[in-house]
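Lab notebook, page 48
Experiment: co-folding of the full assembly
Goal: obtain a model of how the components sit together before planning crosslinking
Operator: M.T.
Materials (sequences as entered):
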Amino acid sequence: MFSPEIAPVVNIADLPQYEGQAVTIRGWVYHLRSSGKVRFLVVRDGTGLVQGVLVKGRLPEEDFHQFDRLGQESSLILRGQVRAELRAPGGYEVEVTGLTPLHICQNYPIAHKEHGVGFLLDQRHLWLRAPRQQAILRLRDELARACRDFFYDRGFVLVDTPILTPTACEGTTTLFATDYLDRGKAYLSQSGQLYLEAAAMALGKVYCFGPTFRAEKSKTRRHLMEFWMVEAEAAFYLLEDILQLCEDLVRYLVLRVLERRNRELEMLDRDTTLLSKVSQSFPRLSYTEAVVRLQTEGVAITWGEDFGGDEETRLSQMFDRPVLIHRYPRQIKAFYMEADRDNPELALCVDMLAPEGYGEIIGGSQRVADLDILLARLQEYHLPQEPLEWYLDLRRYGSVPHAGFGLGLERLLAWVCGLKHVREAIPFPRLLDRLYP
RNA sequence: UCCCCGGUAGCUCAGCAGGUAGAGCGGGUGGCUGUUAACCACUUGGUCGGCGGUUCGAGUCCGUCCCGGGGAGCCA
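Observation: model returned without errors.
Model output:
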């Protein structure tokens, strides 16, 4: 191994700063080519790719011949001279003066060509090494950080909600059950909202960010069994405040990514002019208006029905920005949503649909603040009261109007990246009938 | 749970009207002093998803099961 004093260990992304200098690079073989006495070795290190050139006679004979043993993804350390080179991909290359393989491997399963989705998902642990997957993961990281920055800057306090819960939050979706020692069943959380409401009564403005579990047998491009959701809740907020807050959040997130992760978006061939439309205000439509617009376009839907994937797609394609649909019929929404005073048939709620057919990325609402109404709702929705006594307490002791929303990270990321399926938006997707790796 | 499509070499696929298995990539060997998914030559590689049926004969036709993909319902 080379001592760093002779040649500093450098990230490939930083190579231009080291032009003309000797450097050490640690990484993996991305690609190999040989022309006999001149050999090319494309190396990746997680920050980028660089071509190493081995010329017979210009490095120790033994190191030169190590090249023959290398296969794709063999790990290695190499030392060489950085130089600008127009013929090299990226404009810079390294003239290799020393090559030390760390681990030789052959038959790396993922070649530089088209592969089927099933195969790639089985190889997800290796697929992550692909430049495209790296770009997606970096964008995910940026969005996650940006969420935290957004809420921190606005005085929201991070409150971690439990993952193991005694009951369903909404009583609608199917939950993953697990044994809670000898105390019966526990369920994996499908939302932190109810707990967040309690925290909002303590701290005012709060949010949580963590994994969420839905045991629905959904098999579509928008569904995961396990996904990450950022949820916000604020005391004294009304529906209008939530509309503004979630619009501000999505605008902030997208602009942040445009500003800091342009390289990754470029690698994904994302058309960023579409994303930059978020700087304009988002259209707002009531559910009723949305139904009318759909009907005008010939979609068979009647007032009172929930939007399916098709309807969401059609609606989101009507605009070049995310659109906010508010005040759905109460019947098709969750028990905790406050009714509209002007029309009690309507819930004070909002869904944000991403453009380009990506569909729902946010769901939010103003919550029922009155104890008696909430009790009636539990009956109406056939929900047990006893396990929700603590939730009812929030209406017994200093109840205030409050509202919140949840944003699905993978759906947002899929839209930002222009992915065809959310399964690429999470490092290790959990899908129907797929729990490996 | 339902509907549609698929399962042939490690991978991506072709295989005509039923006649006994192919290509490219990858792997291996050799060649090449500037390659860009390099190229050239040679080579390795298969219970054609399982079971049953029709037939002289099934990768091919029929039935059934398994697995995968897409969608519906439901949701972020």
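Interpretation: Chain A has a mean pLDDT of 91.
Next step: discuss with group before ordering constructs.
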